[in-house]
Give the backbone structure.
Amino acid sequence: MAFHGNGMIDPFGRAISYLRVSVTDRCDFRCTYCMAEDMTFLPKRDLLSLEELDRLCTVFIEKGVKKLRLTGGEPLVRKNIMHLVRQLSRHLESGALDELTLTTNGSQLSRFAAELADCGVKRINVSLDTLDADKFHAITRWGNLTKVMEGIDAAQAAGLKIKLNAVALKGFNDAELPDMLRWANGRGMDLTVIETMPMGEIDADRTDQYLPLSLLRADLERQFTLTDIPFKTGGPARYVEVAETGGRLGFITPMTHNFCESCNRVRLTCTGTLYMCLGQEDAADLRAPLRQSEGNELLSNAIDEAIGRKPKGHDFVIDRRTRRPAVSRHMSVTGG
Ligand code: SAM
């Protein structure tokens, strides 16, 4: 049951307070585990305008969302994205929203870091899978590590706190993760490692890439003293403190440890489709009720109805017998 205007509670009693918004499905990288090289993107006319995105987000905030994350695709390649960030920042000023943040590949960050900070953004996630320029170019297909490093420098100079996200990929970055951890913690950044999820068709075989984080943790524990801590940032990561670096390492384990019991999130795409679970196909169209009337009642009802269908969880499987992705859409559609 969802309570109108009084918070959104799903059928399993979980309060929905976190909205992730994919503002574009386009990206200036083509990470091999995320996208095929030859992707077909949505026609521009299907996208919600920035004003429509603002209106949708505002209704969610009125209904109890406290944390809002912009993602994509690459959020910073959406034209005029800072206009939306600026608009949304009024909810930080009013106190309705606790946190406005974004997940980015960092490629455009040097241009936008100062303005993000000026809009009240305090923390951002930067996705970075390797510190080696050649490997970086290989995994992103199109990316340039120097640009991302400039972006990280600019963000830190602007006072933004950064969490690095790295997808753990067998034979690609597993051996490098100890160095990445030292580097990230040494610069005052947390590092979170993520298990690769079977989302969308890609050119590679996911079975070859998949690295269970239980194995990675055991490996890291040969070099580092890791102590579980209750630290939370509102997402699914479980954190440890790293005695040797004095910093934190997070684990996001959708494959080996299902984290759905504490799920507080829903995900909105740039066409106004609401996914109640990252790993399920069920979705609700919010674009029609958004456009049907100038008032927000239809929209609010459609959101309540969708929250009332939020599933208990997902069930990702990666093995040699399960060749097909668990969901057909790519991570870039729903936003990571
Ligand atoms: N472009 C932004 C970025 O790079 O952070 C935001 C969108 S990207 C889809 C969000 C995150 O999802 C990135 O950290 C990316 O590495 C991760 N990701 C993409 N596909 C994934 C998959 N199949 N399994 C796990 N993580 C994935």
